[in-house]
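Late entry, evening session. Most of the bench is empty. Finally got around to the prediction I had been postponing all week. Sequence below, unchanged from the version circulated by S.P.
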Amino acid sequence: PDVNLENISFSSESQMLDEITVVDQKSLVENKIDKIVYNAEKDATTVGGDATDVLGNVPLLSVDFDGNVSLRGSSNLLILINGKPSTIFAGSVGDALKSIPADQIKSIEVITTPTAKYDGEGAGGIVNIITKKKNLEGITGSMNISVGTRSNRANGSVSLAKGRFGLNANTSVWLSWPRPGSNTFYREDYVGDQTRILSQESTNSSYNYGPRGTLSAFYDINGYNSLTSTVTFGGFGGGSESETNATFDDPINEIYQNYTRSNENSRLNGNFDWTTDYKKTFEKKEQEFSVAFQVSGNNSNTTNNFIQDGNDLSLLRDEVNTNDGINLEYTLQTDYVHPFSGKLKMETGVKSVLRRIDSDFRYDAFDFNANQYVFDPVRSDIFYYNQDVYAGYASFNIQLAPKWALVAGARLEQTQIKGRFENVENDFENQYTNILPSTILAYNFSQFSNLKFSYNQRISRPGLRFVNPYVDLSDPRDISYGNPSLMPEVTDQYEIGLNTFIKGTVLNTSVYYRKTNDVIENWLEVDEQGVTYTTYRNIAVNNSIGFNLFASVNVKKFLTLRGNFNLFTYNAESTIEGLSLSNEAVLWSGRGSATFNFKKDLRVELGGFYRSPNQSLQGSRASFSIFRMGVTKEFTDRFTLGFSAVEPFVRNKSWPSEYSGANFYQKANNVIPFRSFNLNLNYRFGKLDFRQRQRNSQIRNDDVKSGGGDNMMMN
């Protein structure tokens, strides 16, 4: 765009060729040397759904009913959007994923062995959600409406591009119908030869909603310099109501209580990300310099109101608890890629992430004598939490021989943490430095087959949810709080993987060993009054051996079969307060799906998944299974109609759990309706003159333990 070559004349020459018709389509799953790519836009079962539906179909991943994601059995992973983090995950990961429409997702990248250029966070690996960002010449857009029995969604997008400038806007809104559910809880604890019993049965109803929007622009300064800026805003809210009937039988203190408790919860979460990237390329192929800056914010407001009454005056309670949180995050990053030759390339860079998080929690208890709510200063305060991470890395890509390639590097990360309360002297701070090596050695049998040997070390810093000492007293017999003295998890992982493509069959298999020190898990204790206290502790060392197999087979031209199987061990040992504890289990998960491509642009997808119960040092949590189906019909190149169903033959699903300790045993079961049907309509307009450009931000904040709802904002 920087040189005017004036008029250039060409003379025409024609030659008649024989007609050749080539028909093919991109595979649903692609195996690459450092990652697996799932092309979500090819999956009909997720039409009208959200990101949790898409992730649930990705090889190596599993998603539970709360939307929590795990990779090869580990929920300790990083979730990125277009290669960068988002404070959208500062609240509930499950709620955040539900706010991303499935039809905005182009692909999912699963990175099991991140190199040194990625942040050190995420022992299980990295999941990168790539959205559809099309830069076009002209104006184009689309509208999509999905109406269903469980949720409804509408979204639209428009793109404008002219010369050096491009603009893309996307907005969506979603709303779930009220979902009824039920829960049972049973706990017994022991003092001498006496047994106390707490039993609860509850019914509940919940709903969720949320908007989301993105505005992205790029400008090519010239042929070697470009600017990209993206603003993403969104949120999600909802509420729930529950009624609980409970009994507490304490023969030790001669207490028998029978009571009811009603809870009302409302929450509203708003977030934004503003990222600006400058990129400079050079005449030398692959040489590149970039600077990126990101400001992210999250505002979370939660209100809980509960009323309790029973056969004892001490049970009478009427309280309101509010918790307002603000999460601000500032990131500055610079990266440089220098190819010394065709056989040696260096990647290096530095980065800083500054997080400023406030959690303002307040309790008001109803005074029945004064007939008004009274502020409780003992249980109210403001918690300030700062986390600063400074990092630098160097990584080298080396072509050792025609068939041998090596990626080796290391990352240095320093973490500084401070926390304090406004009204209580309970300040704490911590600081640690980690050197995180990463190595991948690959042997290429052919263009489509390779064998990979890898080793890396990863770190998992505890986020605010883990360290905040705020005490949740919404259930006086089940109290939870954070632990500010937590240390990060450190994981060493060794892996041997084989990728191959043989006569229409894609095969990916790996064997891995993972050792994690200072494992962070929930820890339950029951006191002398029969109250359960739940917190987080560095409780164990976990040695896990695993095997994974993924295969995709094309049967003729109309049918594709895919399957994924993951087998791994949980082997944790710990000594807590002089008590030696251990737990061993063999866990597995499996997934199968089939895609039928019929004539006249009709596609049918069937898929199912099962995961065995999760394990911890004190117990297990429910297994999970799901069945999906979808049908899409493209009537024109602009209009598509689809139908999808989740668990069409099962109305309700149950999630039981069991935990035990030295002096207690408890079990619970959560039941919610899961069957859903959706009708989906999509219409596209404008001139479809695509000129795809890669403009993903360089920022990847992969440095906080997440997944499974473990995040930086207190709820």
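Two things to note before I forget:
The CA atoms of residues 97 and 294 lie 21 Å apart.
The chain has a mean pLDDT of 83.
Will write this up properly tomorrow.
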